[in-house]
Amino acid sequence: xxSESIETHRLCLNKCLYYFRLSGIWMSNSSMPLYRxxxxxxxxxxxxxxxVSYILTSLADLVVNHHDITIIVDDTCFIxxxxxxxxxxxxxxxxxxxxxxxxxxxxxxxxxxxxxxDKGATKIIKKCIFFETLDxxxxxxxxxxxxxxxxxxxxxxKGELPxxxxxxxxxxxxxxxxxxxxxxxxxxxxxLVSLMMIEITLWGLLRWTTVQIEVLSYNYKNCNRFLSMQxxxxxxxxxxxxxxxxxxxxxxxxxxxxxxxxxxDKHDAVEINxxxxxxxxxxxxxxxxxxxxxxxxxxxxxxxxxQFAVSTMIFCLNGFLAVTFPHDKKRLMRSIFFLLVGxxxxxxxxxxxxxxxxxxxxxxxSQWMSGxxxxxxxxxxxxxxxxxxxxxxxxxxxxxGLFVLSMETFLSILKNSYSxxxxxxxxxx
Length: 429
What we know:
Elements: H1 11-23, H2 34-64, H3 69-94, H4 96-113, H5 119-152, H6 174-221, H7 235-243, H8 269-272, H9 275-324, H10 329-361, H11 363-368, H12 378-392, E1 398-399, E2 403-404, H13 407-428
Antiparallel strand pairs: 1-2
Helix pairs in contact: 1-6, 2-3, 2-6, 3-6, 3-9, 4-6, 4-9, 5-6, 5-7, 5-10, 6-9, 6-10, 9-10, 9-12, 9-13, 10-13
């Protein structure tokens, strides 16, 4: 009988990495045939050329019409969106090796945890897989709607482009108009799909790092529980987890009751059931997770700072367009779609950062509940001190090293966007 495999947490990640390689964003594999490398390089060069052309032609229109605040606002929205896509694609390209290592360091321990026999651990992972898949399809649909709005929700005048731009050739000629239209449509599709895949990949890094922090928190609390060591993932447990609901607030099986391992190293039952060994193991992996978060900050800090700036700009500018042209239904709908997608995007970043920070802050409580007072001796004192000192330093994701990803930051962005929106409407009046 064919064995049924457990749901994999790499499903969405594999789709994103496949797109990166297909579109030329991801570095070519050394084992890839020469013709594939050539196609990869051609697609990357073409995409960069089209993206830069889109930004420059929109910027030219903004400069020529600098006296019209409405045109400035309209052009700035598209330039900000294209610029954000271009910047994030560059981050993925130039830091591909760093991101690839982060992917392995974050997802490999989840591969091990996913084979645990603990029902709580498997249900936590199952819940995260479900919501990651849900987020993937939600973000895909939002991207499709925004792409449709950007390309088709324009005024119905013949020969007009989806967005304002000035090209160095005559757009009244059919061939040149077709070239300009192709540049804008390609930019919208390529930029939005790339942004979607990049966001799903980076959100996954935050999501599964948070899961490891949560498991580590349970490990601290289970240091004094010598009931059993980690066992292989059994078919019986798999059947129970598969039939159980994704989330139940009263389900006690969501709690992890075993001391779980993050690696496949062989350990005997004697050392695993030793309190001091478990504390040392927790401290070691606590440090590993802290280093992962530090590397995430180094990799994503500038990207998130740009994201916050673009999101603030999109909120206030599209709000201004929606208020200024309430009778232009197509422009109004496009502005609303921009607002909704921008809202979802920044909300997800702040939500994942907030959850990671919350789980990291709870580690201090978990350490106090480890049962150290029942196993205290002179050797253990240093371990407990090191563990608690480490939790005194916040573990959080920051944008530009200044703004912490949290719900407070999300509300602050909305507040600042509203302030700029009020300023723009005042200037227009």
